[in-house]
């Protein structure tokens, strides 16, 4: 029985970088978490420790900082494409790169009715994301968001499910539906207005979540992905991960009080986790390498 080296990659994870655009008195900031991974002819470093083709991860980190200085970061997709193409074109033995970026949103602090020129507050836990894969001369972009917390105070039901001797959950035709959305959508090409597309996909999915009378979180997932694909021809598929942030009705009867869906206990764990892919029938599946190893 022989033994050989399988697929592999290496890089620098979670390079935190904040830039300040001082070109005008009204500053702008970009706050990113960047991870780089390189692939290629790297068998020898694993088999014999030969580092001849191993661009140091520290060099990859420094490249992120230098690129942020040499040219404005712009949209995270463009920044990731520049980094990935640079590594593939300049590093010996490297024929593939994967760049992952999370962007943290900041908003201007309002002062006398307008946003301050150089003072900001963190908008929320929500992050904009992109995963760019460079494979030779081809580029593939998967963008999205994570930790977008949403809630419907009505318009959600859950009933008709199988019941056995271990079932205690009561059926309901009126419940709180809440989740923290992680969504990633694969683009068919790179000729895209990234900022416009992101804002539009996000708004479309939120509208679908709000307007769908949901009989199951799975149904909401499908309607969100379907709406995004119908409104955005540049997308091939949408992958959604929706933890069910349970809100349980508090029993107030011991206190002689009725609870007409007004008082809830918000449980953080355990939680249901609903995941799925909504895709176009006429588009090829994406190689799993285009996605994070943490994704389904």
UniProtKB/TrEMBL annotation:
Q: What is its EC number?
A: 1.7.3.3
| Active-site positions on this chain | 12, 57, 246
Alphabetically, the GO molecular function entries are:
urate oxidase activity
Q: Which reaction(s) does its UniProt entry say it catalyses? A: urate + O2 + H2O = 5-hydroxyisourate + H2O2
Which residues participate in 5-hydroxyisourate binding?
57, 158, 175, 218, 244
Q: Which InterPro entries does the entry mention? A: Uricase, Uricase_CS
* Residues the record lists as binding O2: 57, 244
Enumerate the residues binding urate: 57-58, 158, 175, 218, 244
Q: Which UniProt keywords apply?
A: Oxidoreductase, Purine metabolism
- Involved pathway(s): Purine metabolism; urate degradation; (S)-allantoin from urate: step 1/3
Q: What does this protein do?
A: Catalyzes the oxidation of uric acid to 5-hydroxyisourate, which is further processed to form (S)-allantoin.
Q: Which PANTHER family match?
A: URICASE
Record protein name field? Uricase
Q: Which organism is it from?
A: Saccharopolyspora karakumensis
């Amino acid at each position: 029985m022989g033994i050989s080296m399988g697929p592999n990659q290496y890089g620098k994870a979670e390079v935190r970088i904040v830039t300040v655009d001082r070109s005008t008195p009204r500053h702008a900031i970009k706050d990113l978490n960047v991870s780089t991974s390189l692939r290629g002819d790297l068998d020898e470093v694993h088999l014999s420790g030969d580092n001849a083709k191993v661009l140091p991860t520290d060099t990859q980190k420094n490249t992120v900082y230098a690129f942020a200085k040499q040219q404005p970061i712009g949209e995270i997709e463009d920044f990731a494409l520049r980094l990935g193409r640079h590594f593939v074109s300049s590093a010996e033995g490297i024929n593939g790169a994967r760049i992952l970026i999370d962007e943290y949103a900041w908003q201007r602090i309002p002062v006398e009715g307008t946003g301050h020129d150089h003072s900001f507050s963190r908008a929320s836990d929500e992050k904009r994301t992109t995963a760019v894969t460079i494979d030779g001369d081809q580029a593939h972009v998967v963008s999205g968001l994570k930790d977008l917390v949403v809630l419907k105070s009505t318009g959600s039901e859950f009933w008709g499910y199988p019941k056995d001797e271990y079932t205690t959950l009561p059926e309901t035709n009126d419940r709180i539906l809440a989740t923290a959305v992680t969504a990633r959508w694969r683009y068919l090409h790179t000729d895209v207005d990234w900022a416009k597309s992101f804002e539009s996909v996000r708004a479309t999915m939120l509208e679908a979540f709000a307007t769908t009378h949901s009989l199951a979180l799975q149904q909401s997932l499908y309607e969100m992905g379907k709406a995004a694909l119908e409104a955005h021809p540049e997308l091939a598929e949408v992958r959604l991960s929706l933890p069910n942030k349970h809100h349980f009705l508090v029993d107030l009867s011991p206190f002689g009080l009725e609870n007409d869906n007004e008082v809830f206990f918000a449980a953080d764990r355990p939680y249901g986790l609903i995941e799925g892919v909504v895709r176009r029938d006429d588009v090829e599946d994406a190689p799993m390498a285009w996605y994070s190893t943490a994704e389904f």
